Amino acid sequence: MTDMAHFGRVAVLMGGWSAEREVSLNSGQAVFDALAGQGIDTVAIDLHREDARDLDRILREQDVDRVFIALHGRGGEDGQIQAVLDLLGVPYTGSGMAASAVGMDKILCKRIWQSAGLDTPAFVVVDGLAQAKAAAERLGWPVIVKPTADGSSVGVSKVDGPEGVEQAWRDAAAHGPVMVERFVSGGEYTVALLGERTLPAIRIEASGEHAFYDYQAKYEAEDTGYRIPCGLDAGEEQRMAATAKVAFELIGASGWGRVDFIRDEAGRHWLIEVNTVPGMTGHSLVPMAAREVGMDFGSLCRTILEQTLVPEGSAPEGADGGESVHGAG
Predict the structure, then answer these.
(1) Structural domains of the chain in order of their starting residue, each with its CATH number
(2) What is the set of active-site residues?
(3) Given this model, what pLDDT does residue 175 score?
């Protein structure tokens, strides 16, 4: 086990300014409590947009050596914070700037998967309501209408017919550019990745009032079901895990994350999205998968943080691995 003193002082960055701010605050507080509870010198930083412009000063004042990123969505999961930390030479958890940006951009991510021959539902990027209606007709009902760059199913709607497109498009457009995606009917699964290993797959069973695993099912509903073991036979679960690892690595992601699937009635695995900074709340899936292999929440957080410790003279994939921020010049 790593000597806790080797971490130096750890800043947990949380909050941010995306639509997932509240989820991030919950994730960050849980991570802070877990690290501090193990004797790691930890400080919690609720990062606002104006703070991000002066992150160097904030980290210096706090005498920070490395960062645990618990920011979800734009500004924290899309490469912006990662780019700043790279410039500052501060080690941080998770994927680097480029992979974070690709993971947040659903269109680019899906195109990379398609180019490698991986299955992901057909989609159309739309610019306006008329295009959204035409795309939905072309793809066939039902469809999913969603922002191209947000997480936690924010602004995502399942639309069963023409009458629902306008409201769905408005909900998605409130969060930026919009895509219309063919709806694949089937079971929802997720596979978490931790370093080089994949954790057991989880089947997600949203209650009848939720058309899919939406924001409310993820963070508010108490009747969402999680099956672990997931119910697949060992061979199929291994194939799903292998696909998750390939999909994750194709976009350059590293450290830890989660890949989401739909398994259709024919047993085909459709890639939906990748999460490079998954939730770490009481409803979150990565801690659930870790528990299945005997890893409690504190051990999970420490294992993620240990990825920022690298041999002298080398750098982690997700950061430059430089000196402590108060020693960088």
Answers:
(1) 4-94+297-327 (3.40.50.20), 103-119+185-288 (3.30.470.20), 123-182 (3.30.1490.20)
(2) 20, 152, 219, 258, 260, 273, 275, 279
(3) 86
Q: What tens digit of pLDDT does each residue of 263-285 get?
A: 999 999 999 999 999 999 877 99
Ranges under pLDDT 50 in the chain: 210, 213-214, 217-219, 221, 312-329
pLDDT of residue 150: 64
Encode the chain in three state secondary structure.
CCCHHHHCCEEEEEECCCCCHHHHHHHHHHHHHHHHCCCCCEEEEEECHHHHCCHHHHHHHCCCCEEEECCCCCCCCCCHHHHHHHHHCCCECCCCHHHHHHHHCHHHHHHHHHHCCCCCCCEEEECCHHHHHHHHHHHCCCEEEEECCCCCCCCCEEECCHHHHHHHHHHHHCCCCEEEEECCCEEEEEEEEECCEECCCEEEECCCCCCCCCHHHHHCCCCCEEECCCCCCHHHHHHHHHHHHHHHHHCCCCCEEEEEEEEECCCCEEEEEEECCCCCCCCCHHHHHHHHCCCCHHHHHHHHHHCCCCCCCCCCCCCCCCCCHHHCC
Judge if pTM exceeds 0.70. yes
